[in-house]
Structures are given as C-alpha cells and as structure tokens.
C-alpha cells in the first residue's frame, strides 16, 4: 500500500514538473478572450498583423529615418537613450516594431523554434 502511494505521488510530481516546462498557450491581441489592441498595426500579405510605433519628428520633416529592431527581451516600446531636444534638433524619425509573436504582433504559425 505504501509503495503504491509513493509511486502515485512520484508520478504526480513528474506530470506536474512536465507541465511546468511547457509554455502557456499564446494569446493573440484583438481576438475574443485575448488582450486588447492598443498600438497601430498593419496587415501583412499572409493575414498576420504587425504592431509598430513611430517616434521623433514627423516622417515628412525628418532628416534621418531609423528603423529599430528589438532583441529577445524587449518590444517596440523600449526606451530610447536620446533626449527629445536632441531628436528634434537632428530631425530624427524612429520606427520600431514588434517582431512576430512579441507584444501585439501576431505569431508566425509557419515557423517554430526548430527552424
């Protein structure tokens, strides 16, 4: 009896540990029961949405246009290490976007971590 209880407890512990290693299901912005869309997004040719953010001076009045691609631990809302005065003086326009599966951009279901 004691052996069966230990085996059941051990199996339960292993199942729980396995479940903790699995990522939670993705929540796509703008779908029912998903987070709300708060950023501007464009629709790509394959039907997914890409969220982006524009900063700096107006695109039409800018001297420099810079596209920022974030790393694995960031999003389009990352902090820029430049003052608004400097950005305005130099006439810089920044465009940053959320990579597929990050922030408010839809994941690319045709790709996986193995690729």
TrEMBL record:
SUPFAM superfamilies, A to Z: alpha/beta-Hydrolases (SSF53474)
Signal peptide: 1-17
Gene3D superfamilies linked: alpha/beta hydrolase
Keywords associated with the record: Signal
The organism's place on the tree of life at top rank: Eukaryota
PANTHER family: ALPHA_BETA-HYDROLASES SUPERFAMILY PROTEIN, HYDROLASE, ALPHA/BETA FOLD FAMILY PROTEIN, EXPRESSED-RELATED
Protein name as annotated: Serine aminopeptidase S33 domain-containing protein
Naturally occurring in which organism (per UniProt): Liquidambar formosana
High-level lineage: Eukaryota, Viridiplantae, Streptophyta, Embryophyta, Tracheophyta
């Amino acid at each position: 009896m004691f052996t069966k209880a230990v085996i059941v407890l051990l199996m339960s512990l292993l199942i729980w540990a396995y479940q903790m290693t699995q990522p939670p299901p993705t929540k796509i912005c703008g779908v029912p029961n998903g987070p709300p869309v708060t950023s501007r997004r464009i629709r790509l040719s394959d039907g997914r949405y890409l969220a982006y953010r524009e900063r700096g001076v107006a695109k039409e009045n800018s001297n420099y246009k810079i596209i920022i691609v974030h790393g694995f631990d960031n999003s389009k809302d990352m902090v820029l290490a430049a003052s608004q005065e400097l950005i305005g003086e130099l006439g810089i326009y920044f465009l940053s976007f959320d990579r597929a599966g990050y922030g408010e951009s839809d994941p690319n279901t045709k790709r996986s971590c193995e690729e």
